[in-house]
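Input set for joint prediction.
Command: fold jointly, output tokens.
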Amino acid sequence: MMKKNKIISSLLAQTLVLTLGIGLTRIVQAEAPPSAEEMWKIIQQQQLVIEQLQSQILQNNQKVEEVAVTVEDAVEAVEVAQTSSGSTWADKTTVGGYGELHYNNLSDDNPSIGGDDSRDRVDFHRFVLYFSHSFTDSIRFFSEFELEHSLAGDDKPGEIELEQAWLELDINNQHHVRAGLDILPIGLVSFTHEPNTFYGVERNTVEAEIIPSTWWEAGIGLNGEVAPGWNYDLIAHSGLAIPTSGSSTLRPRSGRRKVAEFDDPGFATTGRLRYTGIPGLEVGISGQYQADASGKGDDIDLSATLLEGQVDYKHSSGFGLRALYARWDFDNTDQLGTSVNQDDLAGWYVEPAFRFAPGTIPGEIGLFARYSQYDARDGITGGNFVEYDSWVVGANWWPHNQVVFKFDYQNESADSPADTLRDGFNLGLGYQF
Amino acid sequence: MDKKIAKLVCLVLSATLCISVAAKGVYEEPAAFINRVFADDPPKPKKLWIKKEVKELINEILGHDLNVLRLRYWEKGGRTTWILEEIGRDQPITTGITVNDKKIEEMSVLIFRESRGWEIRYPFFTDQFRGVSIGDKKGLSDSIDGISGATLSVNAVSKLAQLALTLSQYVENKKQ
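tokens >
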């Protein structure tokens, strides 16, 4: 506005100077003062010039405003085309993933039982890609596609697995329905298993052997929150087909069928209640019941109940603590054809840690120790469950929050003879994007 | 037991049928946030054009561009308020952040679209940002306790807090 006033003032001044100049010239030329009639003509001419100039200024101002609007529209159009909240297929589809490479240097404490199980191995353990798509603001799809051990196929060590492929529909801001193939919400590592989110090169044995992580099934369920910080999951899903004979009898991990042409599945119900109302703290309990945990393909009604509790605390000072307890109880084990020395399996671990930024190198370092105790098959054909003890100590280095390098040392022992007891060190790297 | 499971499935399906109007995870509309922050008398938005030096600041904090040509912000009485978005795991999280005297006065999660980690919208998490400024190492002056299972969402809003502080300082410096 001030600029406009300046322009108008300048033009008026110029006009007056010009007009006065013309007038003076005429006065000098005439060498006599103009008559009133001549003065009136001069004033009328001046008025005409002023009006023409004012009109021109108004036209220029309108043009400037039109250009400003056009520029604004153009900028908005470019931004709409660029922003992530647009409506193209690409805007609604995201890709992510994680991966981890491991090196194990472990010696078998019991080479005389079941052969030497020492391990000197390098393995790209997991290469995972996520694909997600939002159909609308309230209907979305998420999937996790995994290649394990780098090479899959006949006589190859690896597998290609579909670990997640589910649809989620919002009922409202607090409650959601989810259906499809999904990881069961039990334990700490099963649900959040990216390598930069946990300590240790390999996932902890308690969650792998007892829960058994990573564990996914086909089902439908509800999840959401019942109060600030209180979350729940309730799912009906396909169940395990736990072996009832051989060296893996009653071993839950051997009962995962991974939703792959799973005939005659038993069905199960899983629920979880979790509290995260204090930053850094997670406390959760979960439970599962399956009426026929050996599947419907046999005549054995092996009912099974899994109960699990967990605590995960990360304080801003760097101190952290994880602890978990999980236990299976089986009924009707007397129907099994083979001898089983117990009808329950349990395991627990506690893992204190400290994470800090050293300053001398980029990123952060975390030091941890984990003590675990768990029941597992001894690996000897026809053998029993034994109780294992495991110590793992080590360090993670995160040069970036989503990139991690790991080192740990492990020591395993058991309360009775077991096939495999590995001691030694592991190295690993992992990433998530 | 299968009957119980059938009942549960029926319950879930009934809940599905109850889905009404699409819920976006909108906890507070950005316009409502601006009105609330400025006591129903908001100033006209200003525009910060994303020139080279601003783009570099954004890239340093977020690790990528914002894909906009300018950012709107609201300034009154020494306070600046920003509406900023960043992706957590796979969906953008919309926040409203007010900066006053180089410190965060308020941080609110306005729209949360991720399928997990919605706890970050509650005051028990966002209140941690009050009074936080830019620290010695360009990061936030105070550590922020995370939410288990929502690490990426926590990282995203922490970066946005840092960005709001940095941009507020930038526009302040430009006046001098």
